[in-house]
Every structure is written in C-alpha cells, then in structure tokens.
Write a structure and sequence with these properties.
Order of helices and strands: HHHHHH
Number of strands: 0
Helix content: over 70%
Structural class: mainly alpha
Radius of gyration: 19 Å
Distance between the termini: 32 Å
Oligomer: single chain
C-alpha cells in the first residue's frame, strides 16, 4: 500500500498530459486544506487539553474550518470544470460541458453562501438553522448532480 501511494503521484506527474498549472493549483489548495484541518483539530483538542468543561462549552467554529470548507469546494469546482473541458475536447459538443460548468459554478456559489454564514456567525448552533441546512443541501445536491452528469457522459 505504501509503495503504491508514493509511486502514484510520480507516475501521474510523468505520464499525464494535463497542464502543470492546474496540478500546482490543486496541490497548493490540497496542502492548504490539510493545514487548515490540522489547525481546526489543534484548536479543539490541543488548546483545551485537560479542560473538558471548556471543550464542551466552546461552541465557536474556528476560522480555519470555515475557510477549509470553501477551499474544498473550489477544488471540486476546478476538477468538475476540468472534466467539462475534457468532455468538450473528446465529444466536440458544447451543451453538456456548459451544463457541467453551470452546475459546478452554482454549487460553488451555494457553498460560498454557507462559508460566509460560517464566518459571520461562528457558533455551532447556527448550523441547525433551516436556511443554512437548505443552502448546504442545495450545494451538496448540485455537486452530486454535476458528478453524475460527468460520470454518465464519460461512460456514454
């Protein structure tokens, strides 16, 4: 398992015809999300080490959690638009890639609304608001629909 994990990026880097700029952007964003998740975990677990009451009472959402949420959706949008471009290159048709890009950008917009809410109201109780849950569900549904359209078009 370990050797396949370390060899896969090397083989992909050497054999892939994708542009290097896209790879670098995704690598930078992916590394940034890992650091932000580490910061969120550090904020919850290390800063409150030995003080169980503080962990239970602290209902604030770390800024790193909110930012990581948006960066993950940016990465998703980049990947989905990349697949739309590849589908356009292979099929030569424009309508399906346009639908994919519109779905990807709509999902990114919905997630931006959730991220703005997380920054404005950084309390975990705000996540139970109906508006946040509806917009979050729309975001996830649009992402899933976009992935479904991509998968079906690649298989067909």
């Amino acid at each position: 398992m370990r050797s396949s994990v370390s060899v896969s990026p090397t083989v992909h880097h050497r054999l892939s015809l994708d542009q290097i700029h896209g790879k670098r952007i995704v690598l930078i964003f992916d590394t940034l999300t890992t650091a932000l998740v580490g910061h969120s975990i550090y904020t919850y677990l290390v800063l409150h080490l030995g003080n169980d009451n503080q962990v239970l009472l602290d209902t604030s959402i770390p800024w790193s959690f909110a930012l990581e949420n948006e960066i993950v959706d940016v990465i998703t949008c980049i990947a989905q638009t990349f697949f739309a471009y590849q589908i356009w290159q292979v099929s030569g048709r424009r309508i399906l890639p346009i639908v994919i890009v519109l779905l990807a950008l709509s999902a990114l917009g919905a997630d931006l609304e959730v991220t703005i809410h997380l920054f404005r109201v950084s309390d975990t109780s705000s996540l139970s608001d109906a508006a946040v849950q509806i917009v979050g569900s729309i975001d996830q549904g649009l992402c899933a629909l976009c992935d479904l359209v991509i998968t079906v078009s690649l298989v067909y």
